[in-house]
């Protein structure tokens, strides 16, 4: 059995009129991992997810779920996939329990009341099980969408911007549920604008922009490879401008001249810090404090998307 549950091979999408929504993508998703797909609006995240879920037909390429072709064996593959879409769309006049149970039976599962009850309790929906969807708040409707996606016990779960516009309580409950699902062996792919969540939750990260998959890497390796560090020196006397003698280090003035910032690559054998500090001493620029900080995943994301423009 392969370690990859999902394989995306040369998948692209071009709409009538020649608009390219997705350039050829090659991507393998490992069993049981949490994979975060990051990208701005219109980057191609939803298009890629919709193709894998059978909602959008690709222009080229193929998708394999556990070795099965998602187009040739659509019904078998779709039973193994759950999708939480961005849009809050469901039957407004059905009860919570009825709509979630229907979703389970739609995929050939029996009306397993014990599983449904556990699922609704996990999402704090059990007390609302008899309520009509139309009477629920936006956050509760989002919980129902998650329950519907999980009702048939999928092996592969897509969360398309699940945290957008929801309250803090739901976000916290949802990520607890994601951890429990991963412990059960569910493979999870999420798109999110909340980059701190991807930084905290994901095993691997992909960055997509303008329909192109720019980079895929383990989160830790990505941070190490691309993450820069900043050395901030709190000066005894403020500077009006960076002295020309410091030009080779390209420092910047921050905080109204009270902070001198030097950005360096921590992975390099020579960071330039000793020579930078020595030159400061020679110039008589004194500092009373210093601290270093590493760039966040958000900084890396912004840099990558900016470079792709």
TrEMBL record:
The keyword ATP-binding belongs to this UniProt entry's keyword annotation: yes
Presence of keyword Transport: yes
Keywords of this entry: ATP-binding, Nucleotide-binding, Transport
SUPFAM superfamilies registered for this protein in UniProt: P-loop containing nucleoside triphosphate hydrolases
A Pfam cross-reference name: ABC_tran
ABC transporter domain ranges (all copies): 6-235
Any one GO molecular-function label of the UniProt entry: ATP hydrolysis activity
Record's protein name: ABC-2 type transport system ATP-binding protein
Biological source species: Sphingomonas rubra
């Amino acid at each position: 059995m392969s370690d990859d549950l999902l394989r995306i091979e040369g998948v692209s999408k071009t709409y009538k009129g020649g608009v390219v929504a997705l350039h050829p993508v090659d991507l393998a998703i490992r069993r049981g991992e949490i994979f975060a797909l990051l990208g701005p609006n219109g980057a191609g995240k939803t298009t890629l997810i919709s193709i894998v879920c059978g909602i959008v037909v690709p222009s080229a390429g193929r998708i394999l779920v556990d070795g099965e072709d998602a187009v040739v064996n659509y019904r078998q593959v779709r039973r193994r996939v759950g999708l939480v879409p961005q849009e809050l769309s469901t039957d407004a006049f059905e009860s919570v329990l009825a709509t979630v149970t229907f979703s389970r039976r739609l995929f050939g599962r029996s009306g397993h009341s014990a599983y449904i009850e556990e699922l609704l309790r996990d999402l704090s929906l059990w007390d609302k099980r008899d309520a009509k969807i139309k009477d629920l708040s936006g956050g509760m409707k989002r919980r129902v969408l998650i329950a519907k996606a999980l009702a048939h016990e999928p092996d592969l779960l897509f969360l398309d911007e699940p945290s957008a516009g929801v309250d803090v309580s739901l976000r916290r409950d949802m990520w607890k549920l994601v951890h429990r699902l991963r412990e059960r062996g569910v493979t999870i792919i999420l798109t999110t604008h909340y980059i701190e969540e991807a930084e905290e939750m994901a095993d691997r990260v992909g960055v997509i922009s303008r329909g192109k998959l720019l980079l895929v890497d383990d989160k830790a390796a990505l941070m190490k490879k691309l993450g820069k560090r900043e050395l901030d020196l709190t000066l005894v006397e403020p500077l009006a401008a960076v002295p020309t003698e410091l030009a080779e280090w390209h420092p910047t003035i921050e905080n109204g001249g009270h902070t001198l910032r030097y950005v360096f690559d921590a992975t390099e054998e020579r960071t330039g810090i000793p020579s930078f500090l020595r030159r400061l001493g020679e110039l008589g620029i004194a500092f009373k404090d210093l601290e270093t900080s590493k760039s966040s995943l958000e900084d890396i994301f912004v840099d990558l998307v900016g470079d792709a423009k």
